[in-house]
């Protein structure tokens, strides 16, 4: 099939989970033999080969007129496409206009079923716009059953679950580990990802203090950057010895597997209740996301400690030690348990890798996405009756 993949809200120069998802799924679809053209800011052919890309994508449009203009500009390069897929963004909607112009079905990819914008007015407008797009899509792709159930409250368009994944060749037990001189031969507990409140990095810092109080052979590695970085560094400085941790700051995505390979334990201490906006959302709707971090950890074949938040419990079942979100003492206990029993830790990591390869690769996600395209083509473009 020939597809146009719109991600106008994405800047691919930003190394985050959204960029990982976009480039990975487009690359996997193209590797299956589909002709896919990615439209996103910062798009570069080297990022998505063998897919094609529009290198100078328009800036994310901000109103109906801009939507229509962007759609007309893209329509000239969309001749002959079979399907349009758009990554839903808070001010998105080009896909709806482009679908109308080309009479090709729109598959809407919804990664966040309700807006998390801190401004309540913008949040309401964003939710209205998402519902408008969802009602006009021929099909919708989302990542978890809970997200699907939320979306189904505001559209009768069919909604399909396609979990996120990882590349088991890029993230692999065979990756040579990075040299962490500061660790001085100690066992490394690593966290990778954006330093945000709901990712639980502050919980991990507090737990690190508890672990270090029990044993002197542990070092904590924080891979990545984010809005919480300055506060997290200050917390670590207060709670931990200066030689017991390292913040790498922002790293190139290509460097992440080597950092993970250096670890004895990988930590994913999600703490959604500690983020104000998400606490309210999840109290009302539950935690709907499908975190890429978990799958990349699983692919490494390393023992994992993760909070049992949302779908993480299902992804990690039989492949990680889990603890109640926000329970710092339980997090510390899980880390110590894996460090104390190396054989159990090894078997857990092996099970994680096997589960990832069987169920959660980007290739598998691409196969499921292509199946949704086929469904959309059979249905044709439609306008939902839901008001």
Describe this structure in words.
The chain is an alpha/beta fold. The chain has 2 domains: 2-165 and 362-379, Glycogen Phosphorylase B (Rossmann fold), CATH 3.40.50; 181-359, 3-Layer(aba) Sandwich (Rossmann fold). Helices cover 43% and strands 16% of the residues. It contains 15 helices and 13 strands. The chain has helices at 17-31, 45-48, 64-75, 94-102, 120-136, 145-151, 201-214, 229-239, 256-261, 276-285, 292-299, 312-316, 328-340, 342-359, 362-379; strands spanning 2-11, 35-41, 52-54, 83-87, 106-109, 139-142, 159-161, 187-192, 218-223, 245-247, 265-268, 304-307, 321-323. The protein has a 7-stranded parallel beta sheet with strand order 3-2-1-4-5-6-7, with helices on both faces. A 6-stranded parallel beta sheet has the order 10-9-8-11-12-13, with helices on both faces. Helix 3 (64-75) crosses helix 4 (94-102), helix 7 (201-214) runs parallel beside helix 8 and helix 11 (292-299) packs across helix 14. The longest helix has 18 residues, at 342-359.
Key features of this structure:
single chain, 387 residues, alpha/beta, Rossmann fold, globular, disordered C terminus
Concise overview:
This protein has 387 residues and is α/β, with parallel strands linked by helices.
Poorly predicted spans: 383-387
Q: Which CATH architecture of the largest domain would you pick?
A: 3-Layer(aba) Sandwich
CATH class categorisation of the largest domain: Alpha Beta
> H/E order of the elements?
EHEHEHEHEHEHEEHEHEHEHHEHEHHH
| Radius of gyration from the alpha-carbon trace, in angstroms | 21 Å
Helix content: 40-55%
Describe the global form.
Answer: globular
Biggest sheet: strands side by side, in what order? 3-2-1-4-5-6-7
Straight-line distance between termini = 32 Å
What is the tally of beta strands? 13
Domain tally: 2
Q: What's the total helix number? A: 15
Please state roughly what percent of the residues sit in beta strands, choosing from under 5%, 5-15%, 15-25%, 25-35%, 35-45% or over 45%: 15-25%
Oligomeric state of the chains? single chain
| Main pleated sheet | 7 strands, parallel
What CATH calls the topology of the largest domain is: Rossmann fold
Looking at CATH, the homologous superfamily of the largest domain is Glycogen Phosphorylase B
Q: What class, by secondary structure content? A: alpha/beta
Mean pLDDT: 89
